Automatic annotation (TrEMBL):
GO terms for biological process: cysteine biosynthetic process via cystathionine; transsulfuration. GO terms for molecular function: cystathionine gamma-lyase activity; homocysteine desulfhydrase activity; methionine gamma-lyase activity; pyridoxal phosphate binding. It comes from the Bacteria. Its EC number is 4.4.1.2. It catalyses: L-homocysteine + H2O = 2-oxobutanoate + hydrogen sulfide + NH4(+) + H(+); L-methionine + H2O = methanethiol + 2-oxobutanoate + NH4(+). Keywords: Pyridoxal phosphate. This is homocysteine desulfhydrase. Transmembrane segments: none annotated. Belongs to the trans-sulfuration enzymes family. GO terms for cellular component: cytoplasm. Its cofactor is pyridoxal 5'-phosphate. The modification N6-(pyridoxal phosphate)lysine is found at K205.
């Protein structure tokens, strides 16, 4: 018999012999033990050859990666510590100094700052395009252009990129095509179907869906690209914690139901606001007045849970009066969140840049939550009376 000190550190639950867990178990372990010394090294060399150390792979994380790869129509995925972790791992693994990339002008603020750093410190040239037409993209291609970076639905203007046309032009030019599909989720759009090589997500938003986890994913159309990004992410340490993977897996189970309600509530809010005398420029892809309504109808299976609008008058007074909706950054959670981009997400832009981004001092972004629509509409209506 060993001593209590020894027995206490060897507690173990063998897998059940005649039944299996219905929910994916949380493998909250940093490392894995082996009988065979050769097998231990294999798991560190390749993403599909067993589990050795959680920075390289983990069964709970693998369950999440497999599920999201399947939903997006990819062959493999990589879960990361945040959406920015996924975006950085993809860009750093696929680009080198001297390369040129083409990016849609209105991408996420964090992505903008990564691209600026790539340009300033690593000599990667960046060209910004409106994303409205494929001809503009073709004209921006140079011999050293390597990568095209798009977002399915832009923030906060909710413009929808014409992915079939842009990705066809990107592929024709031999570019690696990356699409941030955070706002659409695979329930509304699967960019790999239109030719994307890599799809990235902030799983912090709709995939996790409960405002309680920060995580990211990159989904790949080819195993070769997956392996390159996986190696780099393991080296960078951009990897997700198993508990975060477990929370996102839990969120995935209700993704379809939640996205349906997010879209429905966003639509009801958009219609209420569009008819309101104190509101201008309501932007939600489901409104026929939206500039990309036709594209949205063609490529989305729903118009999304995010909308933006402009309050005519005192924005502060409106925000302070909201009761049901919270004033907060982030999106895709159960509660309706309202954000003032000019002083938060886009605070570093000057007036001209703000205008180019489609933002005015009165612009507000709304992430419609899962509340009963009557409570939500009543809240916005009373706050607008201020
Ligand atoms: C939030 C967000 C990101 C960054 O994700 P984090 O999980 O916050 O790192 C990237 N792209 C889009 C579109 C986002 O909304």
């Amino acid at each position: 018999m060993t001593h209590p000190q020894t027995r206490a550190v060897r507690a173990w639950a063998p897998p059940p012999p005649t039944s299996r867990p219905v929910a994916v178990p949380l493998y909250q372990t940093s490392t894995f033990a082996f009988e065979d010394p050769d097998a231990c090294a294999e798991g560190l060399r390749h993403p599909d050859r067993g589990y050795s150390y959680t920075r390289h792979s983990n069964p709970t994380t693998r369950a999440l990666e497999t599920a999201v790869a399947d939903l997006e129509g990819g062959v493999a995925a990589l879960a990361t510590a945040s959406g920015m972790g996924a975006i950085n791992a993809v860009l750093l693994a696929l680009l080198r100094s001297g390369d040129h990339l083409i990016v849609q002008r209105r991408v996420y603020g964090g992505t903008q700052s990564v691209l600026m750093r790539l340009a300033e410190r690593f000599g990667v040239a960046v060209t910004r395009i409106s994303g409205a037409d494929a001809g503009e993209l073709a004209a921006a291609v140079r011999p050293e252009t390597r990568l095209l970076y798009l977002e399915t639905i832009a923030n906060p203007t909710t413009e929808v990129a014409d992915l079939p046309a842009l990705l066809a032009a990107g592929r024709a030019a031999g570019l690696v095509c990356v699409v941030d599909n955070t706002f659409a989720t695979p329930m509304l759009c699967r960019p790999i179907e239109y030719g994307a090589d890599v799809v990235v997500h902030s799983a912090t938003k709709y995939l996790g869906g409960h405002d309680d986890v920060v995580a990211g994913l990159a989904v790949f159309a080819s195993r070769d690209v997956h392996e390159r990004v996986w190696h780099l992410a393991a080296d960078l340490g951009a990897v997700v914690d198993p508990f975060a993977s477990w929370l996102v897996l839990r969120g995935l189970k209700t993704l379809a139901l939640r996205v349906e309600r997010h879209c429905e509530n966003a639509g009801r809010l958009a219609h209420l606001l569009e008819g309101h005398p104190r509101v201008a420029h309501v932007r939600w892809p489901g409104l026929p007045s939206h500039p990309s309504h036709a594209v949205a109808r063609r490529i989305l299976d729903g118009y999304g849970g995010v909308l933006s609008f402009e309050v005519d008058g005192d924005v502060r007074a409106f925000l302070v009066r909201l009761r049901c909706a919270e004033l907060a950054t982030s999106l895709g959670g159960p509660q309706t969140l309202v954000l003032h981009p000019a002083t938060t997400s886009h605070r570093e832009l000057d007036e001209a840049e703000l205008r180019a981004a489609g933002i005015s001092p009165g612009t507000l972004r709304v992430s419609a939550g899962l509340e009963h629509h009557e409570d939500l509409l009543a809240d916005f209506a009373q706050a607008l009376k201020a």
